[in-house]
Amino acid sequence: MRWSEIPKEAKAYMIYHTLIAPGLIVWILFPLYLMKTGYSILEVGAFFTVVNIASIPLTYFFGRLFNRWDIKKGLIAIDILDGIAYVMYGLAKGAIAPLMLFGGKLIDKLSTLLYPLYQAYEQIIYPEDKYEEIFAWHLRLPEIATLVSFPIMGYLLGYVYNKPEHYRLTFLFFGLFSVVTVTYLWLFLPSVGKEERISSEGFTFKAGEFKRLLAFETLLTLAWGLAPEFILINYVVFVLHKTVFELTLITVASSLMRIAGTYASERVPKGRGFHAIAIGMFLNAVYALIMALAPPFWLVLVVYAIGDFGNALWFPFYRSWLFKLIPKEKTTEFHAALSSYRKVLGLITPIMAGFLASVHPTLPYGASLAGFIAAGLFLLWIAKKS
């Protein structure tokens, strides 16, 4: 699918994700900031688990709330909440630092409760007959922004401005940058109100297929949840003695391979989507296996790139399969419920990952390996049934 063939409103939405891509470095900096200011790997896992517990009851409520109102307002709310959270991180200094960090992370988590609105907006705004092709572009553009911005920021924060106070200034910068992204959302993204949604008349829900979806979600959530970002950060910075710069190099290598994966996904024959997902799961399993063996940095970079190539290969087909199961007039409520299900599954995985890493830094990847193998085998079974 050529860029010129993509509808104008879909292009505007993709450009928004390209604008916010550099700010995702905060996801690396925040766990590292905790570790650099005295938190152990087990305490970091416990921190994220407590935040998860505090946030669960709100997920389904927000899905129902924004099922009745314009989804665009929900997207604006996400950026406002993220901005507030990042500013609180930046102000986390002195005796009030633990309170500011925890309060900021709760607000940040509150914004993630609205993340199902991204999927709901995509399901409505993207052409239904072009889901697989358009999601290749959806992945590609933000990765290009990451390729440009992450090495520069990583070098500066790894070798020039590498103190905790510099991280706090970075948090403040991206918190204030949310003013720009909120303005962009308000001016350039079309509203998608309830009256604009497509009727579900004639829709037949396939209960069996939905059960298979939930089973796959269970395996996938556990596989990723047992080896979260802070496990990589702990291993690279505190075991291999590298810096933020090396972490961003891993992100850049992964971005390059995700871009390659989007082109590979476009060449998968029609009707072979489940096979593409299963291959992606196999590549994820390779990544987890090698990481469990405590590799040197260069090999960490390679295997993370391989794993993310697998992610980009299977993502368009998985998202297309998911969207075809959901009636559009219930899209926000459904995605919120599915998100809540993922959060319940991932409730204790941060502290489990932290505990495993406290025993051995790469032990969480061994647990993750089992999940990816099971997910790949399960998808092959689904392919035979379809």
From TrEMBL:
Record Gene3D superfamilies: MFS general substrate transporter like domains (1.20.1250.20)
Q: Which GO terms describe its molecular function?
A: transmembrane transporter activity
UniProtKB keywords: Membrane, Transmembrane, Transmembrane helix
Classification via InterPro entries: MFS, MFS_trans_sf
Which residue ranges traverse the bilayer?
A: 12-34, 40-63, 144-161, 167-192, 213-237, 365-383
Pfam family example for this protein? MFS_1
Query: This protein's superkingdom?
Result: Archaea
Q: List the protein's name.
A: MFS transporter
Question: Can you name the source organism?
Answer: Thermococcus peptonophilus
What taxonomic ancestry is recorded? Archaea, Methanobacteriati, Methanobacteriota, Thermococci, Thermococcales
